[in-house]
Amino acid sequence: MSTVDLLQEIHHLRFATPDVIERGLLNAWRTYKVSDITRQLQSEAGREIYAEAIVFESADAPKTFYPKTLSELVVEHFAATFEGGSGPEGLTCQQLRDFGALLDVELPILQLLEVDNETFWKRVVKAKCTPMVKFHKYERDSTTNWKELGIELKVSEVIEHETPEYWFEGDLETILEKVQPFVQKLAISQLQPYKQIESEENYEEYKVYNPTPDLCSHGSLIVLKHLTNLTSLSLVFGLQDASRGYERRFFMFSLDDVKNLAQAMVLLPNLREFKISRSRMEPDKLKLLLEQLATMKIETLDLPYCYLGCDAGMLLAKYISKCPDTLISLNLSGNFLDGQQIETMGYGINVYQGMLKKLDISHNPIGEAGVLTLGGAIKKTKHVEELNVTGCEMGEQGAFRVVQLLGFHQPLRVLHMNCTPLGRSGGKKLIEVLKENWFVEEVSCKFCNLKPSHEKRIQSILRRNKKFKAARQNSIASGDSPPSPNGQSMPQ
After folding, report:
1. How many CB atoms lie within 10 A of CB 226?
2. pLDDT value of position 207
3. Using an 8 Å Cβ cutoff, are 195 and 162 in contact?
4. pLDDT band for position 467 (cuts 50, 70, 90)
């Protein structure tokens, strides 16, 4: 048996600082210690006493290979046999970190609710968070609550993986009741619809390959009513990963799904951020959803890539005009809103009593007409400090109209208009407008056919504005009158 094999087979006893060890023990160890050469003899294969299993450590001696200590073996045993509770007691800080590094992240959520171990919950977040860049973002944030975030991710996973037939027969409802104190933000994607299989005696089972939306119901979202601390909810009915086999039902959902969701939202008084994306939102579903949202104090509403088109402008206008004055951000990117829908929605924005600070209508075919009607809706209002019209198929004339918004709409601070053909004339106009507007903070105009000299000039003006903003903030903080663009003081 080789030296390495022998050392792996035996458990070592470790003693520190030989000068404090009993002299007789040390002498006996030196006498009966087996050499490396002897250890390789065939006669040593059946040996049961190993003097070399005792290791004397010196504080200044370099460490060599040591097998696991008894405490390490105990921690491993605790982690392997953990079945719930707060975890083992009496461990040192390092042992607690080791326990958190060994505990299985795939354990059922109900067994983990009492565990307060940052090492473990950080591993859970890393394992469940996609894409990985989000994990690194959380890691850089010193305020991240790893336990709450880890529980939220595991709860989302449970909801996504549970088949709808067992939502109220299994543990799902119990889980949501137990995790209620920890869950404030929930992002659910790839909900599983009910199986569309009909079977009859003596007939082969078959699937409905082109179902209508009413046949594409999912588990009843009324189960979310238990999460009364929820402040942010994100849903995706569509399929995120189509590599496992395409079925049309994965991209559809029923009116009953929206009704169940609305019933749950009645019992979520703290909900402030709501998002549905990559889901086919027909007018009847949108109407029902917005009617419920209009009764809530929603601050951020995101409906990207929901196939919004015909009648969506009217429904959105009604919602905006009736909702509480808490709405500050509206994201409608990636839909089919044209100039007519933007014009209709603009009526609602114009009469809105709150302050809609952020509007994202990117990747909608709004055209030049949509820009004109939007400008008319927000003119002489405090709405829209940030506007995104990237990829809106508006041509050079439409792009020119967007630049004009910076000239006459003073609240506008941030403008995203990438993939919009400004050209030379538009670039000159943009520079002229920015030179006069010291309050614009950001203009994104990539792939806009600008001359390199125009791009440099635009960035130079924006740096000027950034310095001007910092000077104003410093003056206000010190109690002085903030400076004006011409160098004179102006009222706060």
Report:
1. 21
2. 63
3. no
4. very high
Tokens of 167: 């939502």
Distance CA(159)–CA(223), nearest Å, equals 10
Distance between CA atoms of 85 and 318, rounded to whole angstroms? 50
pLDDT in tens, 39-86: 777 777 777 666 666 665 555 555 555 556 778 888 999 999 999 999
Distance CA 170, CA 319 (A): 37
The answer to whether residues 418 and 441 touch, using CB atoms and an 8 Å cutoff, is no
Q: Is the dihedral of CA 330, 331, 336, 337 positive or negative?
A: positive
Q: CA–CA separation, 255 vs 236, rounded Å? A: 15
Q: Judge residue 149's burial from the number of C-beta atoms within 10 Å of its C-beta, 0-12 exposed, 13-18 middle, 19 or more buried.
A: buried
Residue 289 in tokens: 């959803």
Lateral strand order in the sheet of 185-188: 185-188, 232-236, 273-277, 300-302, 329-331, 358-360, 386-388, 414-416, 442-444
User: Residue 127 and residue 130: Cα distance in Å, rounded?
Assistant: 8
DSSP H helices in 88-232: 93-102, 118-128, 132-140, 146-161, 172-179
Q: Report the number of secondary-structure helices (H) and strands (E) in the chain.
A: 17, 13
With 0-12 / 13-18 / 19 or more C-beta atoms within 10 angstroms meaning exposed / middle / buried, residue 401 is buried
Q: What is the pLDDT of residues 98-151, one digit of tens each?
A: 999 999 999 999 999 999 999 999 999 999 998 889 999 999 999 999 999 999
Nearby residues of 89 by Cβ (< 8 Å), 6 or more positions away: none
Pairing state between β 206-207 and 197-198? antiparallel
User: Is 304 in contact with 277 (CB distance < 8 Å)?
Assistant: yes
Is the Cβ–Cβ distance between 384 and 412 less than 8 Å? yes
What tokens were used for 325? 């004055």
DSSP symbol at 311 = T
**CA–CA gap between residue 399 and residue 416 (Å, rounded):** 11
Return the structure tokens found at 305: 């890539």
Instruction: Please tell me whether the peptide bond between 131 and the residue prior to it is cis, using omega within 30 degrees of 0.
Output: yes
User: In whole numbers, what is the pLDDT of the chain averaged over residues?
Assistant: 86
Structure tokens at 7: 């050392």
pLDDT grade, residue 205 (50/70/90)? low
Report the DSSP pairing between strands 358-360 and 273-277.
Answer: unpaired
Within 13 Å, how many C-alpha atoms sit on residue 183's CB side? Answer: 25
CB atoms within 10 A of CB 374: 26
How far apart are alpha carbons 404 and 414 in whole angstroms? 14
Q: What is the pLDDT of residues 252-304, one digit of tens each?
A: 899 999 999 999 999 999 999 999 998 889 999 999 999 999 999 999 999 99
Do the beta carbons of residue 332 and residue 304 sit within 8 Å? yes
